[in-house]
């Protein structure tokens, strides 16, 4: 099968890291294609950044169906930008890494804490937890004093801050599992878990493995109502979003 991982930001080093990680955890018969849009924000740390990233995400979905014979898609940003719109553009599985991580976390422990990046994203993360229905299982959302790009430029310092918050989550939140709240943390999941001693869930890995399961089960995106195809006349002029 062919799974396309879409990094919604334009930082190539993050995309390369996602490709390497997914190649490691995917099955031998799974081909992984990690991409990022040609234009958009370098990182996604606000609602504005998220909105700017969505057109590029949707174009990658359309390209995947039209030209690349993709079987499933992963949106590799913890805000799951454009997830529902992407599901309208394809009948293949489309998974956001936050949604995938939450589902995996509650199968690993009764309660989980999210450890994410800058304090500004707390409100965005709360929206995700509520939207997906995990308010009762999510014990806390812990932010760290860093920017997303710190994970690329100063990874040792950044991951040390993540580990410190994870340890506080165990002590103060009584968390039984940790969800990493940024795709930039994905490649450090195993190391973080070794340091803290409880399950650590990375949404990218969770989404890839769930995509493999959905393709095996021949499950796609239902087109019967909510995620039915967009009206052709609504496609923006001059873009590749015309699916007619």
Structure description:
One of its GO terms (molecular function) is amino-acid racemase activity. It catalyses: D-5-isobutylhydantoin = L-5-isobutylhydantoin; D-5-benzylhydantoin = L-5-benzylhydantoin; a D-5-monosubstituted hydantoin = a L-5-monosubstituted hydantoin. Pfam families: Asp_Glu_race. This is Hydantoin racemase. InterPro entries: Asp/Glu/hydantoin_racemase (IPR015942), Asp/Glu_race (IPR001920), Hydantoin_racemase-like (IPR052186), Iso_Racemase_Enz_sf (IPR053714). The chain is an alpha/beta fold and about 240 residues long. The protein folds into two domains: about 1-95 and about 205-235, 3-Layer(aba) Sandwich (Rossmann fold), CATH 3.40.50; about 100-205, Rossmann fold (3-Layer(aba) Sandwich). Helices cover about 45% and strands about 15% of the residues. It is built from nine helices and eight strands. The chain has helices at about 10-25, 45-65, 85-90, 95-105, 120-130, 150-155, 155-175, 190-195, 205-215; strands at about 1-5, 30-35, 70-75, 95, 110-115, 140, 175-180, 200. It has a four-stranded parallel sheet with strand order 2-1-3-4, sandwiched between helices. The chain has a four-stranded parallel sheet with strand order 6-5-7-8, with helices on both faces. Helix 1 packs across helix 9 (about 205-215). The longest helix has 21 residues, at about 45-65. It is globular and about 50 Å long. Residues about 235-244 have low confidence and may be disordered.
């Amino acid at each position: 099968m062919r799974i396309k991982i879409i990094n919604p930001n334009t930082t190539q080093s993050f995309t390369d890291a996602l490709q390497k990680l997914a190649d490691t955890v995917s099955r031998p018969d799974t081909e992984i294609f990690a991409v990022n849009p040609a234009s958009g924000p370098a990182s996604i740390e606000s609602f504005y950044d998220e909105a700017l990233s969505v057109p590029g995400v949707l174009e990658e979905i359309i390209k995947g169906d039209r030209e690349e014979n993709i079987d499933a898609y992963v949106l590799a940003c913890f805000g799951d930008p454009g997830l529902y719109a992407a599901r309208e553009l394809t009948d293949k599985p489309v998974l956001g890494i936050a949604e995938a991580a939450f589902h995996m976390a509650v199968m690993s422990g009764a309660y989980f804490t999210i450890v994410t990046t800058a304090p500004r994203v707390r409100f965005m993360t709360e929206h995700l937890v509520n939207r997906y229905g995990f308010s009762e299982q999510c014990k806390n959302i812990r932010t760290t004093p860093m920017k997303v790009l710190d994970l690329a430029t100063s990874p040792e310092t950044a991951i040390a801050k993540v580990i410190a918050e994870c340890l506080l989550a165990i002590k103060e939140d009584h968390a039984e599992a940790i969800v990493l709240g940024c795709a930039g943390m994905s490649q450090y999941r195993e190391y973080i878990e070794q340091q803290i001693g409880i399950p650590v869930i990375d949404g990218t890995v969770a989404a890839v493995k769930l995509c493999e399961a959905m393709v095996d089960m021949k499950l796609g995106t239902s087109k019967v109502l909510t995620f039915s195809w967009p009206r052709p006349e609504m496609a923006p002029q001059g873009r590749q979003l015309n699916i007619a």
